[in-house]
Design goal:
Mean pLDDT of chain B: 86
Low-confidence stretches of chain B: none
Strand content of chain A: under 5%
Distance between the termini of chain B: 27 Å
Mean pLDDT of chain A: 74
Helix content of chain A: over 70%
Order of helices and strands of chain A: HHHHHHHH
Oligomer: heterodimer
Number of strands of chain A: 0
Number of helices of chain A: 8
Number of strands of chain B: 3
Strand content of chain B: 5-15%
Largest sheet of chain B: 3 strands, antiparallel
Helix content of chain B: 55-70%
Chain lengths: 190, 98
């Protein structure tokens, strides 16, 4: 068995596995079944390699050794032993269970970010800075404080109340903005 | 003849808070008073700033992300207008008492 050939083959198989979605072995599969699956799944690739090399056919022992190397590398990528990666054979009728995942922290958008963009577009810079920016600042500060305390329902309520107050401020500002526009147009026209 | 500046009830409340408590945020004023609402406090403050009764400055706290907050304080004109209103109210109450 040629060691160099086995390592080269393992590298090619590993790259191919990385491209495939089913590269991650399902939990509960035996090591032998996984090796056989990898060898079968990558047979066409190995054939391509053989055709490319045109030296000699690759033996089944070399394929097996390359597959083992690939799964050892997969295990080292995950920071676990190959045996942990393969898991244990399930008994017939035994239900396969997935390990419970720890909750992931997601990045959320600030409340009312669409309203912020719409108001920034609709109103003048001065109006936006004097009226709406402090209102958004209050909303985001209050929302962040509630989330820090773990009061999710309070944070939602702040979001609803803050959005309502900003919409109310926007409606209250409409006559003034229209009047300013009218005056500006009148001044330009005269 | 000087005309008594017109102050709405909300403007009087804002000036009262700013004169007696110093610089405040809009949200602090809403929390300190039952008459002010979140939706209209900044509209009122902007109009008062246009009239020259209050002035504001942006405060960006170091290490805190997000929008800067705006601190408001009463100007000299705002204080005089408030005092004139207070005096007028006292005189009016005195006239009513007679």
């Amino acid at each position: 068995m040629n060691e160099t050939l086995v390592h080269g083959l393992a590298a090619v198989m590993y790259r191919q596995l990385q491209r495939q979605k089913n590269a991650i072995p399902p939990p509960g599969s035996s090591r032998e079944a996984l090796v056989a699956r990898a060898v079968d799944g990558l047979r066409h690739l190995v054939d391509v390699q053989e055709a490319f090399l045109k030296k000699r056919p690759i033996s089944s022992e070399e394929r097996q050794a390359a597959a083992v190397l690939v799964f050892e590398r997969l295990a080292s990528d995950r920071g676990c032993n190959p045996e942990d990666l393969f898991g244990k054979e399930l008994a017939p009728g035994q239900r396969q269970t997935r390990p419970r995942q720890t909750p992931v922290r997601r990045v959320h958008r600030a409340p009312g970010f669409r309203l912020y963009a719409a108001i920034e577009f609709l109103y003048s810079k001065r109006t936006f800075e004097l009226i709406f920016q402090p209102a958004f600042s209050d909303l985001w500060n209050e929302h962040a404080e509630a989330l820090e305390c773990g009061r999710i329902h309070k944070a939602r309520w702040i979001c609803i109340r803050g959005t309502y107050s900003i919409v109310a401020a926007a409606f209250a500002q409409i006559p003034v903005s229209l009047l300013r526009w009218a005056v500006a147009l009148w001044t330009l026209g005269s | 003849m000087d005309v008594l500046p017109r102050l709405s009830p909300k403007q009087r409340v804002i000036l009262d808070l700013l004169i007696h408590r110093g610089e405040m945020y809009g949200l602090e004023m809403v929390r300190a008073s039952h008459e002010l609402k979140r939706g209209t406090v900044y509209v009122t403050l902007a109009r008062m700033e246009d009239a020259g009764y209050v002035e504001s400055r942006e405060v960006r706290e170091p290490g805190e992300p997000g929008l800067p907050r705006r601190l408001y304080r009463a100007t000299g004109l705002g204080e005089r207008a408030y005092q004139a209103w207070e005096l007028a109210a006292q005189v009016f109450q005195g006239v009513l008492a007679l």
